């Protein structure tokens, strides 16, 4: 076993351990928002470790070539870009469909933002001093 | 190549734990989150299979599987939101 195979195997071990931690967080966390938080981050890190680790590991074997590392890096970058997007869409759907937060939650920034926006849309003529044109514009 | 059995066992345990959340989950979005994690784990598992069987074609299978799973999760999220 040469050095490349050892480095790749260590990366794969770290990645599978993060897979295990992500599934454990899926069991242990109290509500769907916390579950999505722990599951997305550690599953993304775990798949990065496993996939890039397999690419480096294959370079150290007798059948591997540089195409293995290229293809695995393509898959890893794709997963790194699309996992946050799917997590965002799922959590937005959960919030819009009315799933309540855990009773121990202390902060709801999205509701505060929506309330502030609704209040601003309700009374627009009270506080819009910037829309009055400055006298003597371009003449 | 001996250690790959340990990694496959860890991935199997992770899949079983998220399968528990799929069957148990109180709401629909809980089940969707668990299925999303299972698809991510399955993409990594296919890459490991490519090394185990020494076939590079499994890497293409993993890439296509990741793309299709992403599209499916986005479609389900839009459906839950009421936009589809």
Automatic annotation (TrEMBL), chain A:
InterPro entries named in the record: PhaG_MnhG_YufB
Membrane-spanning intervals of the chain: 6-27, 39-60, 72-91
Disordered: region residues: 117-139
A GO molecular-function annotation: sodium:proton antiporter activity
Keyword Hydrolase in record: no
Record bears the keyword Hydrolase: no
Domain of life of the native organism: Archaea
Pfam families to which the protein is assigned, alphabetical: PhaG_MnhG_YufB
Keywords assigned by UniProt, alphabetized: Membrane, Transmembrane, Transmembrane helix
Record-linked NCBIfam families: CPA3_mnhG_phaG, PRK12674.1-2
Stated name of the protein: Na+/H+ antiporter subunit G
Organism (species): Thermococcus siculi
From TrEMBL, chain B:
Primary location recorded for the protein, binned into one broad class: membrane
Example GO molecular function: sodium:proton antiporter activity
Record-level GO cellular component terms: plasma membrane
Name of the featured protein: Cation:proton antiporter
Classification lineage: Archaea, Methanobacteriati, Methanobacteriota, Thermococci, Thermococcales
InterPro entries to which the protein is assigned, alphabetical: MrpF/PhaF-like (IPR007208)
The entry's keywords: Cell membrane, Membrane, Transmembrane, Transmembrane helix, Transport
Subcellular location: Cell membrane
Pfam families: MrpF_PhaF
PANTHER family hit by this protein: NA(+)/H(+) ANTIPORTER SUBUNIT F1 (PTHR34702), NA(+)_H(+) ANTIPORTER SUBUNIT F (PTHR34702:SF1)
TM region(s), chain numbering: 6-23, 32-51, 57-77
Topology within the bilayer: Multi-pass membrane protein
Coiled coil: none
